[in-house]
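Reviewers of the previous submission asked for a worked example of the structure-prediction workflow described in the proposal, so we include one complete record here. The input consisted solely of the amino acid sequence. No template or homolog information was supplied to the procedure at any stage.
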Amino acid sequence: MEHWMSALPEELWDVPLTHLAIPGSHDTMSYCLDISSPLVRSESDLFRLLDAFCCCLTRPTLFKWATTQDKSVEEQLAMGIRFLDLRIAHKPKDRSRDLYFTHVIYTHLTVLVSATVFVATIYNEDICVINVSPLQETLLSVATWLDSHSKEVVILACSHFEGIDDRLHEHFILSLKKLFGSKICPRTESVLTLRSMWVSGYQVLLSYDADIAVRHQELFPSIPYWWANQRSAQGVISYLECKKERRRPKGFFVTGLNLTAYTNYIARNPSQSLRTLTLSNWECLRKWLEQQIPGSDAMCINIIAGDFVGPLPLSPLVVALNQKLLLRNSSQMKKED
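From that input alone, the workflow returned the following structure tokens.
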């Protein structure tokens, strides 16, 4: 799965990326949540109060229900994931420009850590030393992975941006441009296929869910995400079928296979977690997934994202759906003959 895009049959190289079946991960970075970090700003005052007085109870529960992935971003890429759901924020009262990923709380790992500059005196001379911890630069690891996988294309969906003002937006966008450079496909590109991306040397599509994105041609608008907000597989499937009946969007869009549990369910099931809930509903979701068809038709799918893409075989199942495009093209050619 590490090279699945370059391994697709040549007949699919000219199919728009918006018509291919592409596997993605929901809340990609939640595998490294920091259980001791503050709550994100958008959480309710009631939850903050409860967390302040009963953190020994709330934090373990919060952690096991906020964690949606258990594989690193490099491992997810190697497993075939090509859509990364990146929720980004700046910590309150943090005077640095460091940005973190979030899902209820913040992550250990940073998005792009700021360089620490200090002056060291060596042999009576002041020398400026810049100390950067590359292990904490999550997006640097993505760029490094792409260097060794020149025909793989990733979609980075940046969203939420809690606590980020225009100044931090501009700093972050400039950092993205510097990091990915010529790998970034501009939104002005009219043809988005594997072949066109390879010819131009593009490997990164940056989706940016903020108004400031219109100022930068390197940034695509936010990608619609079909989120069912349901606890059971049946509820998710019912929601997704209703969305399909209303026709797919013209561009990229995400079909979310992720489940959502609310407070009353979590309180009544203290031994459960999002992982156990997801695994117990997987068989039903898998059967529905195998019936889906990529393409341009009104009820076709495009990106399919899920939780726990490591233990569950989401990527191979989604990639296999592209074989249906070959069968459809073959049947159309026979009709024309």
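The first helix runs from residue 4 to 7. We consider this example representative of the routine output the project will generate in years two and three.
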